[in-house]
Amino acid sequence: MKYSCVCIDDDKMFNEILEQYIKRVDFLELAGSYSNPIEGVMAIDKLKPDILFLDVDMPEINGFTTIDALDHKPIIIVVSSHWEHERELLAVGAAKFVIKPIVSPEHLAQIVKSVIAEEV
């Protein structure tokens, strides 16, 4: 089974790295990548991905507002260096909080597998 993914992070370089990692994980498929969270929210409600990789600290709207704005609720994996928000993000619907960086496609696969195992 393949899981469709959307990435939302204002750091374009991180998005590009994550895109490349997703392409190298056989059970993931990239549906879209957005550096503007407002565009990302609109895309998620249209694309209805299985998984959302989300940053917390973004200039337009933050991760909390992004989660709250979603009509479609994918599995949300927060990837951020702002660890101080972990408990709050898990409380509002994130399935997992991962400290940046994700270092390899294998690391990404391990993260997603752990989340999927918890969701079942």
UniProtKB/TrEMBL annotation:
Residues 4-115 form the Response regulatory domain. Keywords: Phosphoprotein. The keyword Methyltransferase does not apply. SUPFAM superfamilies: CheY-like (SSF52172). PROSITE patterns: RESPONSE_REGULATORY. InterPro entries: Bact_response_regulator (IPR050595), CheY-like_superfamily (IPR011006), Sig_transdc_resp-reg_receiver (IPR001789). The modification 4-aspartylphosphate is found at D55. It comes from the Bacteria. This is Response regulator.
